[in-house]
Amino acid sequence: MRRFTAWIREGITHPRPGIFLKALAVVAVFGALSHVSSIMGLLGGPWAAKPLQVRIADLLLLATNLVLAWGLWRRKFWAAIAWMAVVLLFQAVPILLFADAFAVGLRARIRLYSLLATDLVLLGILFALLPRKKTGTLQ
């Protein structure tokens, strides 16, 4: 575990992962805007008419996206780790285990699974951009 966190801590200081983290910060701001539009009733109908789970998720993810956007833009280690945790805990687990509570109908379910697939691809890109540690050379 220490090697993993050290790899990420050192890796995000490099230019390519840093640029990618800034791009993720912009995506996080757009995610926050989608939650604001949902709360304002511009997306998906009146907010008060939505299920309680959706309203709680909107509030939690709005705050999370804003904090993560700031941290990712500044290339903070905690933000990179928190973004990975958010992908797993706020998206992968609820979508895979409780999709019925969040998605009524096939179209909403496809949207949720597409969101999850996009986040997993972004996670893979981040890992691909992090520099690899060089192993011992053969002599």
Describe the protein.
The protein is mostly helical. The protein has one domain (2-129). The chain is 77% helix and 0% strand. The protein contains 5 helices and no strands. It has helices spanning 2-11, 15-39, 52-73, 77-102, 106-129. It starts with a helix and ends in a 10-residue tail after the last helix.
Annotation keywords:
5 helices; elongated; 139 residues; 0% strand; mainly alpha
Question: What's the short version?
Answer:
The protein has 139 residues and is mainly α.
Write the layout of secondary structure elements.
Blueprint: H1 2-11, H2 15-39, H3 52-73, H4 77-102, H5 106-129
Helix pairs in contact: 2-3, 3-4, 4-5
> How much beta, percentage-wise?
under 5%
Low-confidence stretches: none
Q: Helical segment tally?
A: 5
Mean pLDDT: 88
Beta-strand segment tally = 0
Shape: elongated
Order of helices and strands: HHHHH
By helix and strand content, what is the structural category?
mainly alpha
- Biggest sheet features: none
Helical content band: over 70%
Instruction: Please give the domain count.
Output: 1
Cα separation of the termini = 29 Å
**How large is the radius of gyration?**
17 Å
